[in-house]
Design goal:
single chain; alpha/beta; Chitobiase, domain 2; eight-stranded parallel β-barrel; binds zinc ion
Length: about 550
């Protein structure tokens, strides 16, 4: 009996007075460029520690609030925030780091406190992400931070993730959850694929039928175009107010939203709403199946050009992004070859086939160049999928290389900016294991975490000037076989962790074995948020 009492007393002491020793580990994902453990004492974060931020700077105030929230999630500690430049032992957030890279940051932990200094508020935010990920998830009274100096900056300025909300719609709350996931992985660009054959998802005030009709399909094919349908209507769209709310939510997390209006193909959502925009005049139906439709915008109709001008102008009004994505992929020329209006346009423009391009490819190029002018007129820049190379590249276009690396290589050699997003490595709708029969139905392919991690965005055959044209890396989640957002989480996590080290960390620091050892700590953060991550390489 006496022994039991003693044992209980001992356990009580351990529980209350000796909180679990923290295992702070600065080797987070993505791995920082430099981590120099310093001699001497570190700093102990406890209930009384304050987070200090620059007075009068709303972004820094919000950064402080993020850090406070993250620390509470990990440890249960609720730190107070204060606008001040100094003040005892604290976590001080400030800008002013001199660096060529605006997202660079440094963290210094010493007995005096913790300082996170960024080259900008965004840099401070990434310092906060690193600090957050280095602190283990465990309810504690104190966190003992070893003395360290970390200095870090991203390898690529454009670090993207694409989400297709057209094949399957996601709610505003899910999109916000997606943005939180991006922030955790230092991703700074959310490419939002908003329109498709299977649904138009963004309100355009001048064309209300786009959402009244184009956002709804009557049912969806079962499996891979089996000819059987589920009988369940599917739809949804974002009002312009909701889209603006998403843009603001992302901006608070230093994420830019690049909207994509896919044209001139992948347009059945629009054609079903406004049949006069097609070569045949319809009737058209919002597609119930997957694939590439022959029904695309008619190039012979002046209304088509008016339509995309109006749509892009409303889109640029909602989205402040420097980049506007106009798609340009997978546009069959079948109808253009047969359409009198399209052929008349080819004749009036004097477009001729040569050994490289057909007249219809030149027509597409004419259309893309037109879209680029609309975008440039508002001071923005156009991105398109690598098909925009066909028929001649629009003058200032940035190319998203998805059919492997060759489109990106060709564009870089032509002095165009390139974002690498090859379907060989970075299509997260692909299976993530060879044992496809044990997985939910996917589009195909096999891109496990290790393969994603192995991706090298800089082709060896490019010279230094051409290499500097590779501005970034992106992974894509197409959602034909991703029926809901829980499933989207499963497809992107933890592959996004592998992606973010490709995007952020210097290539000489990449080491897959080390990555696997560091992953469980990140997964503890996934667990806090109940993210539905895949368990092929981590439990
Ligand atoms: Zn036509």
């Amino acid at each position: 009996m006496k022994k039991t009492v003693l044992l209980f007393a001992a356990m009580f002491c351990i529980a209350v007075f000796q909180p679990k020793a923290s295992n702070v580990d600065y080797q987070v994902i993505p791995i920082p460029e430099r981590i120099d453990i310093q001699r001497g004492e570190g700093f102990v974060i406890s209930k009384g520690t304050k987070i200090l931020y620059t007075a009068g700077n709303e972004k820094m105030k919000r950064n402080a609030a993020f850090l406070s929230e993250y620390l509470k999630e990990n440890t249960g500690l609720q730190l107070k925030m204060k606008a001040a430049k100094s003040g005892g032992k604290a976590i001080l957030l400030k800008t002013g780091l001199v660096s060529k890279n605006s997202e660079a940051y440094e963290i210094e932990v010493s007995a005096k406190g913790i300082v996170i200094i960024g080259a900008s508020e965004a840099g401070v935010f990434y310092g906060i992400q690193t600090l957050r990920k280095s602190i283990p998830v465990a309810k504690v009274q104190k966190v003992k931070m070893p003395a360290v100096k970390i200095s870090d900056a991203p390898a690529f300025a454009y670090r993207g993730m694409m989400l297709d909300v057209s094949r399957h719609f996601c709610t505003v709350d899910s999109v916000k959850r997606w943005i939180d996931m991006l922030a955790l992985h230092n991703v700074n660009t959310f490419h939002w694929h908003l329109t498709e054959d299977q649904g138009w998802r963004i309100e355009i005030k001048k064309y209300p039928r786009l959402t009244e009709i184009g956002s709804k399909r009557t049912e969806t094919v079962i499996g891979r175009n089996t000819g059987k349908y589920d009988g369940k209507p599917h739809g949804g769209f974002y009002t312009q107010a909701e889209a603006r709310e998403i843009v603001a939510y992302a901006a608070q997390r230093y994420i830019n939203v690049v909207p994509e209006i896919d044209m001139p193909g992948h347009m059945l959502g629009a054609l079903a709403s406004y049949p006069e925009l097609g070569c045949t005049g319809g009737p058209y139906q919002v597609w119930r199946q997957w694939g590439v439709s022959d029904d695309v915008l008619c190039m012979g109709n002046d209304k088509t050009f008016e339509f995309i001008t109006d749509v892009l102008n409303e889109i640029m009004d909602i989205f402040p992004s420097k980049y506007i994505h106009i798609g340009g992929d997978e546009c069959p020329k079948t109808n253009w070859k047969k359409c009198e209006k399209c052929q008349a346009r080819i004749a009036s423009l004097g477009l001729k086939a040569d050994e490289h391009h057909s007249a219809e490819e030149r027509l597409q190029s004419y259309f893309i160049s037109y879209a680029e002018k609309v975008v440039n007129k508002k001071g923005r820049r156009m991105i398109g999928w690598d098909e925009i190379l066909e028929g001649g590249l629009a003058p200032d276009a940035t190319v998203m290389s998805w059919r492997g690396m060759s489109g990106g290589i060709a564009a870089a050699k032509m002095d165009h900016d390139v974002i690498m997003t090859p379907n060989s490595h970075l299509y997260f709708d692909h299976y993530q294991t060879k044992e496809a029969n044990t997985e939910p139905l996917a589009i195909g392919g096999n891109s496990p975490v290790e393969k994603v991690y192995s991706f090298n965005p800089i082709p060896a055959e490019l010279n230094a000037a051409q290499r500097s044209r590779i501005i970034g890396v992106q992974a894509n989640l197409w959602t034909e076989y991703v029926p809901n957002f829980r499933h989207a989480e499963y497809m992107v996590l933890p592959r996004m962790a592998a992606l973010c080290e490709v995007q952020w960390s210097p290539s000489y620091k990449k080491d897959y074995e080390s990555f696997l050892k560091r992953l469980p700590m990140l997964v503890e953060v996934y667990k806090i948020h109940n993210y539905n991550y895949a368990k092929h390489v981590v439990k």
